[in-house]
Amino acid sequence: MPARDDETSLKRTPLHDLHVSLGGKMVPFAGYDMPVQYPAGVLKEHLHTRASAGLFDVSHMGQIALRPKSGKVEDAARALERLVPQDIVAIAPGRQRYAQFTNADGGILDDLMVANFGDHLFLVVNAACKGADEAHLRTHLSGDCVIDSLESRALIALQGPKAEAVLAKLCAEAPAMKFMDAGPHEVAGLPCFVSRSGYTGEDGFEISVPAADAERLARRLLDNPDVMPIGLGARDSLRLEVGLCLYGHDIDTTTTPVEAALEWSVQKSRRTAGARAGGFPGAAKILAHFDNGASRRRVGLRAEGRAPVREGALLFADATGGAPIGKVTSGGFGPSLNAPVAMGYVPTRLSALGTKLFAEVRGQFLPLTVAAMPFVKNTYKR
Amino acid sequence: MTTTLYTSDHEWLAIDGDVATVGITDYAQQQLGDVVFVELPKVGRALKKAEAAAVVESVKAASDVYAPVTGEVLATNPELAAEPALVNTDAQGKAWFFKIKIADKSELGGLMDEAAYKAHTA
Q1: Which run of H or of E encompasses B105?
Q2: Which of A89, A247, B112, B122 falls 20 to 30 Å from A106 in CA-CA distance?
Q3: Can you tell me the distance from the alpha carbon of A213 to that of A219, in angstroms, rounded to the nearest whole number?
C-alpha cells in the first residue's frame, strides 16, 4: 500500500468529486488518484460494459493539439511522421488512427491516438508518458508545429452496445459516426471533441470536454439507467480480453511494433519500398523486423485451469522448468469468458496458434495454449 | 461448543475441540473484491503457524491465506473450489477453506476474539 504522504501529492481529474460521491475506491494510478472500482465491483462493471454501457474517466490521459505553423494540416502530419511509423498524411479529416512514438532502437516510447481535425492534429497519449511525449514533440516538431497541451479538458469514455443510443440523446451526430471517426461536436450543448473509439473492444465513444463542464456531462450520461460508472479494474480486464496492449506492460522501450504484433498499425507507405518508407526513429530495426521477422513475438495465452496467470509469470517450453522462454506481460481473469486470459512474449518459433506452453505460478507449471486474440470479439461499428 | 477467533491477517477459525475450521473474514472479502479462484491445501499437509496455506485470487490480485495455527489439514471445502464466489456471499459460513487439527492449543492465545478483531479493522 502506498504511504499516506504519497496520496496527498496525487493529481485529481475534474471528475474526482464525482468518483468519491459514487463510492469509487480510489487508488494511485500514473500519478493520479483514480477509481479502481465502484461499489458494484470489477466483475459486474466489466459485464455491464459488455452488455449495456459503461462510463470511464480517462481524463488522466494527455490531450495534445498539434497546430501547423503553415496552417496546412498536411504539414503537421508530415512532421509527426518523423516520430511515428504510421501513415499520418493519409488520415482524412474527421478520422483517427492508432500510432506509436518509437525510439532510436525501434522500441516504443508510447502509444497514442492521432485524429485529423481539419486544421490541426489532435493526439491522445498515456498519462504516465504525457510529460515526456510533450517534450519529445517540442524537441522535434517545434519548427513546424505549435504543441498545445490541452490541460483544461477532461476525457470521458462511454463504451458498450448501448453507448450509441445513450450518446444520441445528447449528440445528434453520434449515430452517424463510424469506428475511428473523430471531430468537434456539441454534446449536451458543450463544445466537445468526439471520437468513435475506445479501449474495451466495445463500440463506444471518447468525449473530450472542457474540464469545468466534465462533471455535468458525466452526470447527464449517468442519469441514463443503462449507464454505470466503471473503474480502472474493469478497464484493464476489458482491454485484456480484446488483446489490446497496455503501455509499460505489453509494450515499452524494449519492444518493437513487430515484436508486439502491431504490424497492422504500420501502413505499407511507411514500410520498405513504400512511398514514404522509414524516416522515423528506429526505422532500420523496425523495417528489418518487417522484412526478416523478429525473434520474439507477443501472443495471447489461454490456461486450462481456472487459476489466473498474471503479469511477470515466467513461461516455459515444458513442465520440467529449465530456462524460461518468455514472460507474461498482462494476465488475469476474463469475466466475459469466465476463464483466465493472458498475453506475453515468446520466441517466434513458439508463437504459432495452438502451441502448448507452461507458466510458473507459485512453483507449479500450469499448461497454457497460444491462442488467437482478441479473446472476445470486438463489436466496432465499421 | 464452538469458539471463533481471528488473526490480524484476516483469517477466522471456528474451534471445535482440537479441530479448527478456517476461512477469511467478511472484512477481507470486501477488501479483495470479486473472488474468481481459490487454491486449497492438500489434505494431510502439515502446516506451520503463519505459513501460506491457501491462495485466494480476486479479479485483480492473488492473496495468501495463512495457517492460523500449526497442524495437519484434515479436509478442504469442495463447494468453495467449485464456486469461488462463495467467498463474497458467505465468507464466514459456506466459504470455509480448510479444517486443521490443532497441534498446540497454546498458539490460540495470540489470536483475537470478535470484539478485538472489530477494533483491529475499525
Answers
A1: none
A2: A89
A3: 10
Contact B60 A42 (CB under 8 A): yes
Nearest CA in chain B to A37: B33
Q: Are A113 and A124 in contact (CB under 8 A)?
A: yes
Q: Above 90 in pLDDT, residue A276?
A: yes
pLDDT, residue B60, reads: 79
Under an 8 A CB cutoff, do B36 and A306 touch?
Answer: yes
pLDDT given for residue A2 in this prediction: 42
Residue B1 scores a pLDDT above 80 = no
Q: Is the ipTM of this complex over 0.90?
A: no
Q: Which residues contact A32 (CB under 8 A, 6 or more apart)?
A: A10, A11, A12, A13, A60, A127
Mean pLDDT confidence for A266-295:
98
CA distance A344 to A369: 12
From the list B3, B102, B112, B92, the residue with the least C-alpha distance to B49 is B102
Q: Before A2, cis peptide (omega within 30)?
A: no
User: What amino acid is encoded at A363 in this protein?
Assistant: G
Q: What is the pLDDT of residues A92-134, one digit of tens each?
A: 999 999 999 999 999 999 999 999 999 999 999 999 999 999 9
pLDDT at A5 (0 to 100): 47
Alpha-carbon distance of B117 to B122, in angstroms, equals 8
**Following DSSP, what letter does each residue of B54-91 receive, concatenated?**
EEEEESS-EEEEE-SSSEEEEEE-HHHHH-TTHHHH-T
- Please give the single-letter amino acid code of residue A167: L
Q: Above 70 in pLDDT, residue A7? A: no
How close A169 gets to chain B, by Cα (Å)? 34
Between CA A167 and CA A227 the distance in angstroms is: 10
In this structure, are residues A332 and A240 in contact, taking their beta carbons and an 8 Å threshold?
yes
pLDDT band of residue A4 (cuts 50, 70, 90) is: very low
**A16 touches A33 (CB < 8 A):** yes
B81 interface with A at CB cutoff 8 Å: no
Are A42 and B37 in contact (CB < 8 Å)? Answer: no
| Shortest Cα distance, chain A CAs vs residue B1, angstroms | 37
Helix or strand (DSSP H, E) at A339: strand A339-347
Q: Residue written as cell 458525466?
A: A218
B-chain CB neighbours of A235 within 8 Å are none
Angle formed at CA A237 by CA A232 and CA A242, multiple of 5 degrees: 125
- Note the pLDDT tens digit of each residue in B23-59: 999 999 999 999 999 999 999 999 999 999 999 999 8
How far apart, in whole angstroms, are the C-alpha atoms of residue A375 and residue A358?
19
Cβ contact, residue pair A308, B62, below 8 Å: yes
In the three-class reduction of DSSP (H, G, I as helix; E, B as strand; rest coil), residue A7 is classed as helix
Closest CA to A196 of A379, A48, A13: A379
Q: What is the spatial distance between Cα A131 and Cα A229, in angstroms, rounded to a whole number? A: 28
- A333 and B62 within 8 Å at the Cβ level: the answer is no
